[in-house]
Amino acid sequence: YCAKDSTKVKTHAWITSKRFAAIGLGTMGRDTTVSETINIRYTFTHAADTVVYDVALDAQTLEIIFDAPEVPPAWTALEFEQCKHCPLAASEVSHCPLALSLDRLVRTCGRLLSYEAMDARVDMPDKIILKQTTAQKAISSLLGLHMATSHCPSMKLLRPMARFHTPFASREET
Description:
The chain is an alpha+beta fold. It contains 3 helices and 7 strands.
């Protein structure tokens, strides 16, 4: 999430180890001897267009690794529609960690029409999943992964499930 600062928004745990040191945060408690990540690639092909979306998860914590935007969009501000059950205080945290992690997803997939038919491919470390589906269902799978691995304290309970993420799973498979 972003902590309030009088001069700028500081990014925290989702940035890579190299950037921790660069902004004076050391390793933020991460074991830097193990730099393993879990990489997942979603590829959506529809009509004459292909959208590729990469997700990197810290293999130890299962938190999503990404660079927060330098100027976060207004809709990511914690005070903009803050969840009623959110334990974060707007006086300490300027932006919603889940919304920040979704910013790139919205910018990348926002042009897709929910009803568009597409071929979805998900490349994971131990499997490849292919599915003919709609944009809505394909992005829904990716959204669930983002939510569980974001730095949102309310979603933290779902994070262990990310290790066994099965895109497009049926009710019986979950």
